[in-house]
Fold:
Amino acid sequence: MSANVARIAARMAKLDASGIRKVFDLAAKMTDPINLSIGQPDFDVPAPVKAQAIAAIQSGFNKYTVTQGAAGLREAIAAACADEFGWTDGRPYLVTSGVSGALVLAYLVLVEPGDEVILLDPYFVMYEHLANLCGGKTVPVDTYPDFSPDPARIEAAITDRTRMLVVNSPCNPSGRVYGDDVLAAIADVAARHDLLVISDEIYNLFCYDQPFASLASHCDNTLLMRSFSKSYAMTGWRLGWCTGPAAIIEKMTMLQQYSFVCAPSVAQAAGVAAMQCDMSAQRDAYRHKRDMVYDALAEPFGLIKPGGAFYAFVPAPEGETGTEFVERAIAANVLIIPGNVFSRRDTHFRISYATSDEKLARGLDILAGLAR
Ligand code: PLP
Structure:
């Protein structure tokens, strides 16, 4: 193929996947690894959700829906938000292809070249890569060692180029759940600086020690994003939603019209059934796995107890980088991710405990044995 045919837009050079690629290269050589790297539930989609999807296909609900999302699902989301937040203001909801879809639309609508996006470090990788793709610049606010953000540090990071802050609680990769007090303080900073905040609440059902708290109940400047991916194990169905300032949702909807068109129709039909499912048994099972992780790794690694999602972000042993420890773990047949994939630091590693208790126990045993 000629160089001209294969000429790639310059913006792609701003995406760097070298950290994770290195891990996958090493992982490719493993046979039957204990895989503690996967960011999705190990339980299956609830039966009523599957049944609803099958019924939708058979009844011919297979065409495009309206761009903003099928009325039935948007009504169910609005009713859930009226319950949770007391919102009855007729605000707009946009059904998206997961939180990923919402993030792509939001960044493209909001971030200009040179704009700064404040991230709480460590952060979910997509927040950084999308900013780079838009020609923006990420400004990390360090939250080590306990991963609770300091509102004063967020405030100090604000400049006249700041476009938005991204908040994610429960957090991937740290598993940290922000308390109502921290969220109220962040909302206060946002109000005083007239700052937009994306609140990625994809793990809202997975809080183990305290009720989930949303930034959106404190902060009018919130672009709230949720997803069916983790809550109902629907990662492959590509369904999420977003709400926030009407002027922003309107432009995101317009862009969705010319890109994704709509979220998958069958997933939208099934999403209504998903919202009626009680997922407390799954949450309890993940709390138990969290406890297994904490019991095994607190002492050898100095892990601070994570409160939500299904991740632990564990300090590497003294004198070793996260990457070096991950190489040793992979050599011992446990697949984990080095912290520098999610952070400007290379001091930690991420484990996902979304796997069977039996596999998790074996993996934790090996990891604890590798702690010096
Ligand atoms: N946000 C966070 C924090 C995530 O961990 C993930 C997936 O791992 C996503 C967003 C993307 O999820 P979705 O499947 O809804 O696009």
Q: What stands out?
A: The chain has a mean pLDDT of 96. The first strand starts at residue 34 and ends at 35. Residues 296 and 364 are 6 Å apart (CA to CA). Residues 39, 98-100, 124, 168, 172, 200, 202, 227, 229, 235, 240 surround pyridoxal-5'-phosphate (CB under 6 Å).
